[in-house]
Amino acid sequence: MVDRVSVGVAAFLAVSAVAATAAYAQKDAAQEGIEAYREALQDGNPAELYEATGEELWKTPAGPKKASLEQCDLGLGPGVVKGAYARLPRHFQDTDRVQDLESRLLTCMETLQGKDPKPYVESAFTAPPKEEMIALAAYVSGQSKGDAIAVAPKHPKEQAMYDLGKRMFYYQSGPYDFSCATCHGQEGTRIRLQDLPYIPGTKGAAAGWGSWPAYRVSAGQMWSMQWRLNDCFRQQRFPEPVYTSDATIALSMYMAANASGETMKTPGIKR
């Protein structure tokens, strides 16, 4: 009887080992297929068209003051675009706020061009005001492509924003009791063909932060980070966040600071 049991257990373990090996092999093959698919997407990224539009918007006089955005200070001095996105969000003395790219652009549009930020905040992401913001985000972010992410909370308001972002990341609520961590709080997970980056880790945070803004092939749309965060709130069944609110900037600060030291790959391309 003991011998039969031993043989049965050994046979079960052998079959389990074969099944596990086959499952891992399938997983590896699937992962290779996904990587090949993503590599193919990189050729002719439509985001380049948005970058060109954004550059034109940056340099063209507009608004009641008939001024361009070329003197906008994104943190490295008036008009300096190269490398600026890799250092955002950050605290700005003139507003005494921690700002991400899109909130800072609104500040520059208001002060330099005399534009009212309200239509940009309240419009839908597919409406012309937001399309303008997304194109500008594509242009500015593209000027940091290949740069190291360098977001290290030093100012007290930067640290407070990071802490708020971390609390928000783990905060569970809504009809499904979701949090950001539900999808992005564990390593090695995936939904269909989409890897779910582990945001508390440096590599995962870089995957989640360093490739946005990005062109979404399935939607045929260019998404800024603000839009991406808005969609995360939607999927959690949370109320829609106010565009460029502290809630969205806090989550951006948490991701960007966790990703510090990794490489910017913006604007990216997604399935």
TrEMBL record:
<dbReference type="Pfam" id="PF21342">
    <property type="entry name" value="SoxA-TsdA_cyt-c"/>
</dbReference>
<protein>
    <recommendedName>
        <fullName>SoxAX cytochrome complex subunit A</fullName>
        <ecNumber>2.8.5.2</ecNumber>
    </recommendedName>
</protein>
<keyword id="KW-0808">Transferase</keyword>
<keyword id="KW-0408">Iron</keyword>
<dbReference type="InterPro" id="IPR036909">
    <property type="entry name" value="Cyt_c-like_dom_sf"/>
</dbReference>
<comment type="subunit">
    <text>Heterodimer of SoxA and SoxX.</text>
</comment>
<dbReference type="InterPro" id="IPR009056">
    <property type="entry name" value="Cyt_c-like_dom"/>
</dbReference>
<feature type="signal peptide">
    <location>
        <begin position="1"/>
        <end position="22"/>
    </location>
</feature>
<feature type="domain" description="Cytochrome c">
    <location>
        <begin position="54"/>
        <end position="148"/>
    </location>
</feature>
<comment type="similarity">
    <text>Belongs to the SoxA family.</text>
</comment>
<keyword id="KW-0574">Periplasm</keyword>
<keyword id="KW-0732">Signal</keyword>
<keyword id="KW-0349">Heme</keyword>
<keyword id="KW-0249">Electron transport</keyword>
<dbReference type="InterPro" id="IPR025710">
    <property type="entry name" value="SoxA"/>
</dbReference>
<feature type="domain" description="Cytochrome c">
    <location>
        <begin position="165"/>
        <end position="264"/>
    </location>
</feature>
<keyword id="KW-0813">Transport</keyword>
<keyword id="KW-0479">Metal-binding</keyword>
